[in-house]
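Q: Got a minute? One more chain.
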Amino acid sequence: MTDQIHRLDKENIPKHICIIMDGNGRWATSRMMPRSFGHKKGMERVVEIVESCRKLGIKHLSLYAFSTENWKRPKAEVNALMGLLVSYIRAQLNRLIDHGVRVRIMGDITPLPELPRAEVLRAMEETQHLSDMTLNIGINYGGRDEILHATRELVHRAERGELKASDLTREMLEDLLYTSHGPDPDLLIRPGGEQRISNFMIYQIAYSELYFTDVLWPDFDEAQLIKAIDSYQNRNRRFGGV
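A: Always. Here it is, folded:
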């Protein structure tokens, strides 16, 4: 761990961090390399940040890997991203298991090609009993689609006569979100210079602290993570109170 960790308040470490991993393509282009090279470097950064979060005691980490809108990208780039997903699982799964990391997926994986879908299902199955840390990976994920998915299920229950409109509660909706197993994010981090949410966890981040940085994701190392947490620790979270 970098020496910067010593300045962090160990009693105020976020329980849940979510990250919009942005800037891989621009990082590669600036080096006169193909965008796929940037995605590969970005995947290597995932390995470091997952390990750093685990050592810091962060219990939940959510990563925006592939959005519902990313299918619009060139086919070659989409295929490269799917290949990297397979490579990451095959290379890191045993390590994740050894460290007690449970893998969960946010999003609808049914449209994924057969091999990536099979590897994702294998990762979830082989880690489902672990509880030291949860790694949520957003794949074919969109916040609006997530809310629509939950709403449809509530409507189906109403159609089956299992509940009435007057019975609906916020907790019922939250239980149907992809992150129902854990707390809402304390901190959302977006590297890459953009300052928007891009349809990521739009329900869950209602009271999250937001941290934006110009550092591109392939350069977002442990020191940058600690800088983001330090910023979080210097904020007054009131949750609507005084």
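A: Residues 75-98 form the longest helix (24 residues).
Q: Perfect, thanks.
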